[in-house]
Specification:
6 helices, 158 residues, Malate Synthase G, Chain: A, Domain 4, mainly alpha
């Protein structure tokens, strides 16, 4: 039991999203087992709340990718309007995404699909913000997750 507790503690420190998902599964198993405790525990709702931590991490990933991809698209397709503000937003999103992925490395496994979903919204936002036709922005994200997160990557216009 001690080693299991140490590994859970380590997982909590190393990957918050994975820890939350594991703990939610464990709480649901405790609910199914009708585990006795000195005080009544609402296992299902407790599991739901813990699971919410993992969902929150995934939502933050999607939100930050949306904002980053929107600004990368504006940077790429509207080079004459590039500003320090756009550069700052791109830098901020990259730094926060790096922090999020360091706190929850398991989120890296969903990066490609999350980038694809975020791009679907980001291209529409970029079209609205720039006044360019939606067709200007490809349907498939032109930036790999690695490039988008790379602090040295700045997309150039054709």
């Amino acid at each position: 039991m001690r080693n299991h507790l140490l590994s859970m503690s380590t997982l909590y420190e190393d990957d918050l999203a994975a820890w939350a998902e594991d703990q939610a599964r464990a709480l649901r198993a405790a609910a199914r087992a009708k585990l006795n405790t000195p005080v009544a525990v609402d296992w299902e709702n407790l599991a739901e709340e813990i699971e919410q931590l993992a969902r929150s991490e995934r939502r933050e990933l999607a939100s930050r990718l949306f904002r980053l991809l929107t600004h990368l698209a504006k940077w790429r397709w509207q080079p004459r309007r590039r500003s320090r503000s756009w550069r700052a937003t791109i830098g901020e999103q990259r730094r926060e995404l790096a922090r999020l992925l360091a706190d929850s490395p398991s989120l890296r496994s969903i990066l490609p699909e999350t980038v694809a979903r975020a791009w679907a919204d980001a291209r529409g936002q970029a079209a609205d913000a720039t006044g360019l036709p939606l067709a200007t922005f490809p349907e498939t994200c032109p930036f790999t997750p690695e490039a988008a997160l790379d602090p040295d990557f700045w997309p150039e216009a054709d």
